[in-house]
Queue: 2 jobs
Job 1
Amino acid sequence: MVGNAVFRVEGLRKSFGHNEVLGGVSVELHAGEVTVLMGANGAGKSTLVKIISGVYERGGGRMALAEQDFAPKTPAEAIRAGVVTVHQNINDGVVADLDVATNLTLDRLSGSGAPTLFNPMRVRREAKAVADRMGLAIDLKARVSDLSLADRQMVAIARALAHKPKVLILDEPTSSLSSAEADRLFALIDRLREQGVAILYISHRMSDIRRLADRIVSMRDGIISGIFDKKPLDYEGAVNAMLGRKIHLEQIVVRNSAKAVLAIEGLRIAPGARPISLTLGDGEVVAITGLVGVGKTALAETLFGVRRPLAGTMTLNGRPYAPETAGEAIAAGVFLVAKDRGENGIVQGFNIQENISLPFHKRMSRFGILRRRLERTTARRQIEELSIVCRSEKDEMSELSGGNQQKVMVARWMAQDARLFILDEPFQGVDISARRDIAAKLRASANGRATLLFVTELDEALETADRILVMSEQTIVGEHRNADVDLDRLLAEVAGGPLHSAA
Amino acid sequence: MTLRDHAIRYGFIVLLFGLVAYFSIAADGFVSPQSAVFIFQSVAITGVLALGVTATLVVGGFDLSIGSVATSAMMAAAYVMVVLEQNALVAVVVCLLIGAIVGLINGWLIVYMRVPDLLATLGMMFLLVGLQRIPTEGRSIATGMTMPDGSVANGKFSDAFLALGRHRFDFFITNLIPVSVVVLLVLAVLIWFFLEYTRFGRMMYAVGSNERAAELAGAPVKAYKIWAYVISGVFASIGGILLAARLGRGDIASGNNLLLDAVAAALIGYAVLGAAKPNAFGTAIGALFVGILLQGLTMMNAPYYTQDFVKGVVLVVALVFTFALSGRGRR
């Protein structure tokens, strides 16, 4: 290991409005080393990456690249200086409408020294060199929009490597890769490490971390909460530093349910997947956990009528249930808090009150005219119930913190009584206190309905559920009563899928 | 509220009053009931069209075909009465049907054929501009005209139909308020109430702001979008009826400015009271603004060709108000 840091961040600060996201972060990256950055959702990882890569302006602190002051004003500047980032959102790294070759050489199209004329021959030649160096086996003439997500990711990474970076930042690069593709990526990272590139690898997937890390830096609530560089690495210590506590949980009082609300029989949600059968009981909170991409959202959407199952039947309260649209599901009392609230939940132009009433306009109107007083009292009640921090029900959504925005989404669907209440990744981008509030509210109000949570993070399942089901390969592979969970077996089930297993 | 907030909120209203004050001083006879009525009358048709296009803006779409729907309706009304010798009711019904059908086709193209809204309605605009000329081989329609087959069209605009454009109600002064202004006011109140107070209007805004969220809240998003284009088409055809009634003939050369004026009115509406979103009240004010501007310029003897330029400047300024000053336009 080399002693001197190639890249140094000192006391970096950043706030959005009153919300301090980074409170003085200091990190060093060394040549020929993989530094893993761990942090829960909302710890500030992405903000840190965006400052380093020139997307955001820093609020305070210093950055230095090879002892030179480093202050990129644009992403292009950072790239030209040799600090290259592959962002988490794959589609940010590629231009979908262009072919692979152009994507691989995209950054050479602009900046000083770039030729004025676009020469397809040269582009293809350069692209081929880039692809060969990385062992990329993709047709260079293919349009990126025709590629699978995993292939797009490889293109994005290859494009980043075309710059021969001194510092390479990878933001959760394996989240949509198959095991073979991830192995290819790991091999590549090994090669770059030998070449002396300083790598910052952001992930909270333990298998990746065990495979790659030379050092681990844990982040929590906008500060560095632990640095681990003594071999063998203290993985548990790093996780503890990230979560700010032992993974020992306050034991919840597990309930059993006698009365079935939803019964699923032989449901197939993807071609070739094994059928799913399960029963959800009244008053029960069930969590389905599993890695990203194992079909959790597909199952949630099938239950909510947004997606059609390939086979199988569902029974709700003893009656056949086969919703064709979300509207039918809602009418039957099946509500879904969809994941990714910005994309699927929040209506930005609406205030809190209007966001809460959105699915229940029909029930809240007379002769088609909205009953605004009812709308307002409902919103006020829900704000109270979920302790949403706001000035009034008329506040714009953009004025709320992520946690409170999510509370509004949950409040929306708790405004009316559900028979089956589904929440897909309800704790995504939510601070710990909001997460506790939501979980407590879900458990306290669970009677009279079945509650089904889809979560990737195991802790979230352990904190909230009576029963935990494990999903892998588009089906349910395991079931645990949340009283005497055999964690080893559970983890083995989670990792048993086609995704790369724990190393 | 800061000064900036005030500027966003009331800037355009202040501008409107400033404009009225300026013309009152600079143009003789600007301040009179007759002048006011004239402004309203010139605003009426573009206002009706603008209210329709507002509905499509609300669902996040756009309708460029409104101008040609209006002129097609005008030509159809003339054809029905002059050539087919039918009565006013038939003419009105035919016009409304044309508007509804065009709206349905627009909606179908956009929702099911996935043609981007601007392109679909632009295509429809070209199609209608051509279509309305086919029955008469490009000639205007008036009583006594010679048809392509050599016969003479002897029908005429019925008095009932012409009254839509020419009758005036008494209001303090006899013969003051034209029918078209009443139509505009009624439609404006209707669409305003619909968008602000009914669940359908609310959901249309939701569809325009986050389609996916609206869908996951159980809304039939596709139906809402198609309905918006039907509303737009029907409103445009009402505009066409009023235009035909005012002219008393099917004039292929008229109605060229309808699209530009109506779109300008609806987009200016974004800036009124800092709404930063399409809204019926803003659209009505926007139409009034355009009307006052044009009337004032006309009374000051500004050449006609400067009017489009001034209109464009006002539109650009209004858009700056909406998007740059109120952080809402930003992502």
Job 2
Amino acid sequence: MNNFKTKMTPFLFIGPAVAILLLFAFLPIIVALVISFTDTNLVGLANYSEINFIGIRNYINLLSDGNFLQSIGNTFFYVIIGVPLSVGSSFLIAVLLHLVGSWLASTFRVIYYVPSVTNIVAIAVVWGFLYNQEYGLFNYLLSLVDIGRIPWLEDPFVAKLSLILLAVWKSNGVSMLIFLAALQSIPRSYYEAADIDGANRWQKLRYITIPSMSFATFFVTITTLIGWMQFFEEPFVMTDGGPLNGTNSIALFIYQEGFQYSEFGYGAAASFILFAFIIIATLIQFKFRNKDQSL
Amino acid sequence: MTLKRKMVGLFLFGVIMIALAACSSDDENTDENTIQVWTMSDGLGDFVTEYEEETGMNVEVQAIPWDNAHDKLVTAVASGKGPDVLQIGTTWIAEFAEAGTFLDLTDYVDDYENLGAEHFFDSAVASTKFEGQTIGIPWYVDTRALFYRTDVLAEVGYPEGPSTWDEMIEASEKLAARGEGQYAIDLPDDDPQFPFILAWQQGWDYEMDKQAANFEKSSLRDAVALHHLFYDKGYSQLGEGKEFFQAFSDGSKPMFFSGPWDIRTIQERAPEIEGDWSIRVMPSAENNHSMMGGAHLTVFHNSQKKEQALDFINWMADPDTQIKWYEFFSELPANEEAWEDPVLADNEMVMTFGEQLEATQPLPLIPQYERIGGELLDTLEKINRGGEDIDEALEEFISQADSILNR
């Protein structure tokens, strides 16, 4: 009896966490998977007997849906430009903040973190003004150096870059904090030893700082990557996917199908494709990391 | 862990669970004299106190912003838990009616003084009919008309505003020729109703049995071509540009189509042009039809208080109530008798909308309406901004409409 008790105790402790995870994470995923094989819409939602099982027709339709393919293309564009940019810039900010004095560092830490805690709708209003083609601040500044008006949000290609700029600015804060924490946990003795060996600043960065932060970098890269694959808020509040569907992302496409047009089955299928992309990207990164450690 | 501590822990856990349960449980109102009303009109809550005093009923009003209303209604449909009285915008009727959201009122309307079809605008009543059912009672109506700057239009020879599309094009050419940054008219690029209004004016109509073939009619192509002309020739600005009311005030965009709410907006945002602007009915091509928009009051399908709900709707549809509602919120009465009241009859601008309301058409009552309207807007964007050929873009639109209608 006592033995049984000892064996069961760990399960008792992890039980609630596992139960919540099953209920709120795995169950919805499974339900979504089932829905993605049906033609559930508003009518089906009101009356379950109207729901039909249609196999993989949603997936086939998606692959021939121009808007969806375009939003996949846009999402990859966001990821390829956005992830290196936001990881790189937050790393740079963290290293620079680590170099300067503590008074300056804590002030700027707050400044860089503020965008992360600011409401996206407020950000959208302010950046909407900044990007305004007629009297936005950016075009005004450019006009001072005789550069013509840039259609920040009016051209499909430029609008993508504008949204990336906004998202990098907004997301820097969190990654920066993680990098700063990692920087502070590097033992000072490494640097002291390097000083004795006569290493310069660049060598210390290259051979001590960067390798010591590999786990933080890995973590930030994965979370940033997942965040960018689910890119949603910025196009939702700034452009609603336009112009010409040029800023639509997969996540926004899912929202439009599922919630604006009530095509729940179709939206669920699209969300599974996004899910697959994220899993694949994460697995590839884990693979790289394993290789890294074996060296 | 001592027993006492365990007890405390258990107790706390229990309290939290009860609190959670209390949050999630909907307070089912069994009280006979209380009805729940969901509306998108903030302010109805205060407005109904008069009804409460008259009848001793208790009306619980929940105001939902338009942006969240669709999600909220979807949730209500999915869970089967809705209010007793529900406001619905005319564009969502078919979609939610198909899902069986509303009680069929056909057998009830004759029992109440103000609910009969004869009291309301014909197109408003037409938009409450879905597959032979009467799913709601018109509450307020709205339509689109032409706002214009009298002084600016007088300079190009149209002090009364253009009355046909030919005149509109002629005036626009002169207005756009005034120089860089000068336009003729601001066309709504995110209003899915607008392309349909243009199409009706070209004689187009949506016939239920023809489905996607409706969009093959040449009248729709005429409307799209007309729309494109304004961007192609630079009569209208692509993209947002200046803050709109500023542009209207400085005369760089002296015309726009909008609804009655913008009367007040102009008065507030551009008081300096008082007396220099007016409203007229739509310019005509084949006709000068505009849309019949607005909102209806409906009864949720499983409401336990049909009688009370209908009594409340009957009060809302009363001409006196309708006039009061107009005075408070500038929303136009659906009840035609209310329009004879001097509050409306003596207001020239509002009467222009009254005149336009006589020439309106209900929007196509199909569940996929929003979807198709959105696709049509995308198609227009492809033509105007993306430079696609009109016929190719329309062909693509027709095949999309076909797959949407037959999904």
